[in-house]
Amino acid sequence: MGCGRVGAALAVDLARDGAQVMILDIDPSAFRFLPEDFPGTKVVGNGIDLDVLRKIGVDRMDVFVSATRGDNRNVMAAQIARHILGVPVVASRVFDPLREEMYRNMGLRTINPTRVQAKRLKKIIEAESEEEANEIVAGFMRQEES
Amino acid sequence: MYIIVVGGGKVGFYLAKELVEANHEVLVIEEDPEKAKEIADELGDIVLEGDGCEASVLDKAGTERADMLLAVTGEDQDNLVACQVAKQRFNVARTVARINNPKNEEIFQKLEVDITVSATSAIMAHIEQELPTHHLIPLMRLKGTGLEIVEVRIPEDSRVVGQPVKNILLPYQSMISLIVGEDAQPKVPSGETIIHAGDEVVAVTMHESEEALREALMAPPPPRSF
Fold first, then answer.
1. Are B137 and B207 part of one and the same domain?
2. Which single residue of A30, B93, B164, B200 could bond A25 by disulfide (Cβ 3.0 to 4.6 Å)?
3. Which site among A46, A66, A68, A72 would you substitute to test the B interface, given the most B Cβ atoms closer than 10 Å to its Cβ?
4. Which of B122, B140, B163 represents a domain boundary (last residue)?
């Protein structure tokens, strides 16, 4: 749910791994982030509407991910998927660190990109030279690949 | 009581106004500075500018000593999160969420919002009361019990017309609590009270037994076998 840069990249990655992927966004123009040859299904709809989630078969899915720009939207959809529709694995991105921690403690799988990104930005401004900054960024990328 | 109102739109504004008039301590949390100022101009220094879903804002609002939090923004997801943060982090005893999508009533209750209020459902209930449909109208849920209060109008052809209450086979944990006859006189029924066509019957039932109760009170008599 949420075909922004993150949602689209994840959908492509999962499809490449052989998963059957459906991507949902309320705004059809969001699908521009997907490659032309995206093998999954694109659906336009509101991910916090129970009827919509039922109609697209979320109750039969193995994994549900919410990664829209809205924290509240993301945690609401995740809780519907988990507690109402019984999806076994549910993951969300939450920008507000406090809200992220709270929902993680309530049993959702959540990540908060804010702190990591702030730390990383600090590291590269503290680098002594452009070369060192590039080296640090290369290090981040190696970490992500592993 | 100390009551926090999240969302200073029209609903939030008039709620706050009524609550102040009823001598409650009220704080409105509103994100939009212009709206916040308008409310402060009208109602005085009872507005906090900020996002009512954010723990830091709710902390500043003194939410840990609030008796009640009413989340009445126009967005269901924001109201859900405000209630959940209030409950989880600040132990607020009673949370109330305004909802637009009536389907969210059941979802929010599962997610531990104490009360949901839906204008959509309220209007639908009024429409259904006006129509001669064979429906059971859910009036309210009793918190934490799985029970709800429902209303039915007894149809002409119902099997219970002319029967005393004691003859009606009600589903498990269901009870007829009030009967309002066509003369608009409410009465608490005894076992001997006779049911008439057109009676408004208010009953308590389990949510799962709604259909069985509808059947018991509204279905026509079963065909006789000789």
1. yes
2. A30
3. A72
4. B122
In a domain, B226, yes or no: no
Min CA distance, B31 vs chain A (Å)?
15
- CATH architecture of the domain with residue range A5-111: 3-Layer(aba) Sandwich (3.40)
Q: Do B81 and A106 touch (CB under 8 A)?
A: no
Q: How would you list the strands of the sheet with B25-30, edge to edge?
A: B47-49, B25-30, B2-6, B68-71, B94-99, B115-118
For the record, the structure tokens of A24 come out as: 């949902």
Cβ(A61)–Cβ(A24) below 8 Å: no
In one letter, which amino acid is B71?
A
For residue A104, give the chain B residue with the closest CA.
B88
Whether the model pTM is above 0.80: no
CB contact under 8 A, B81 and A79: no
DSSP track, A55-93: HTTGGG-SEEEE-SS-HHHHHHHHHIIIIIS--SEEEEE
Q: How many residues would you count in chain A?
A: 146
pLDDT computed for residue B124 by the predictor:
82
* A70, A80, A98: residue with CB nearest B107: A80
Give tens-digit pLDDT for A46-70.
999 999 999 999 999 999 999 999 9
